[in-house]
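anyone seen this seq b4? input:
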Amino acid sequence: MSALYDHVLRLLHESPDGLPPGRGFCLPDPPASAAESEDSRNRLPYQTVAAVIAEELRPLPTDPATLDRRFAELGVRGRHRQLILSAVAALPLPAEQHAVARTLARGLTRTGSAVPAVIAGLALLARVGEPEDVPYLSALGLLRSLTGPAVQALDALDRQAAAVVWLVSAVRRPELLPLVRALGTGDGRAVPGELVAFPADARFLSTATARRIAEAVRLPDLLAAHPADPALLARAGRLLVRMACSSDDPTRLLAYHDARSVYETVVDRAGLLPPTLEHHATLLSLAQDLSSGAGALLDWPSGYRETLLASLERLLAEPSWAVLAEADPGDARAGWIRRTGRRPFTTAVGRLRIEVVAGDPVDREPVEARILVDGRPLVPDVFPPGPVHPPERLLDDRLLRAGPEPRRVQLAEAWCTEGCCGALYVTIRRDGAEVVWEEWQRPTFPGPRGPAPELPALRFDAAAYDAEIARAETDDSWSWRARRTARLIKAGLVERPELLARWDARRGWISTGHEDPDTTVVTFLYAPGLGAGAADGDPLQFRWTVPDDGGPPEAQAAAALGRLADDDPKTYAQLCGGSPERAAELGFPWPPEDG
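predicted toks r here
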């Protein structure tokens, strides 16, 4: 069986454009005897395999073929990739062993024919690799089973090469493919044009994609080479906004080594941008990130972040920019700019600050009750998998108040659900003249990172704490008509649960629509007996989009509550959850797939 590295070179030579297909090249088919052996071998428990891998790596063998053969004999397979990576990361490698480890790693990656041995070589090069290893790592990263370990090794040696491999292997959106093709084939002249050509909305730019594009195009060098290009400058700002996106993983911004440099360049040259709603939204989003988001967590020199914010504030206050927010009263983005106004430029006073942030509605960003401690955003610093909860939960439900009894509060939950990647909890209690946040709970992360370190208790002056929570609870300047209507409806149903109970219904999620934030949405659960607290079987979920008559939120909420009191909401809400079988049992038609 040929070496995997030779296999990749052959496939690249045969590829019409010198690039792999979607998600990378496939591994070569194993010999029939090896496949039969794999099918017939009893799979070892993962704990046993982990012990076997660690034993074979201590001490490091000097012959790559020996490790390759031993892995095969002991049943170590490609599916044990994470175990191999963890075992290599945990190896003690004093400086005097680096040369031996490097020689072994090069033998494994350049001549290895089996995935486990090559992965071990890649993991070793992540620790002891040198620039001469970059071409081999870049080639092996084009094999879909090796992309992750190869990119990890490249990240330590050449971030631009790592980003190109990642993009070539991961990006499938046709709108991005011209840029990826130019990067993958080394067509540097085409890169600037393709970088600004694709639509840069949230559908195409995850935080990871935005970061890798910035690394792959060498964004600081590109900006330096084109100092008067407003389209390139706007695209650089947009990439920063997407990297800091709290609805994804804002720590991608912190992993981007050139983030500070690009922020500085974009803010310094922002006056080159034509005053448009899109550019205003980009600059205001950057200000939000620098003020209370992931951008505030970068290692800024003392006072420099404040200098950047002041520069953005001056520019956006200029008449040619300020007038944009008033140009179209019905435009959602213009309305967001009006509401957001000077909020990102308000200096935090006191140790605790609760800053409610509504992101650009075009990006459908969540509304967050961001928590700043000593001016530093808490949640993205200690819990990257998800944003802090919205104000309706933390503030409207009075969860941050410090009462006589300790209260355990969930501050944030992973986007994929708590059951998958966890949540962030803290216990809030009053201790004399202080309020204490303690007994933190967050997930421990497996693998070489080890468990998350324990967080220290935070103490606040009780009087200042109470004043800040009261201020945040009563400040709704961030909100808009549909959101205020939703909050008033929720408050009414909390105060009068009988409005839904009489219909055997119970309040669910009430807020603004994700697809259309200018709509008010009320959800509720229904099952016979639910109103009396003894549901007969699993409930169904219904969704009611409250009609907007253009009136003030107070009047619209009162009308909605009146209709819930007088008319069974199941007759005008749409069934949206449960099971088809349960719906049929209770006499409700199941909605069509596109409904």
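DSSP finds 30 helices and eleven strands in the chain. The longest helix spans residues 277-292. kinda curious what u guys think
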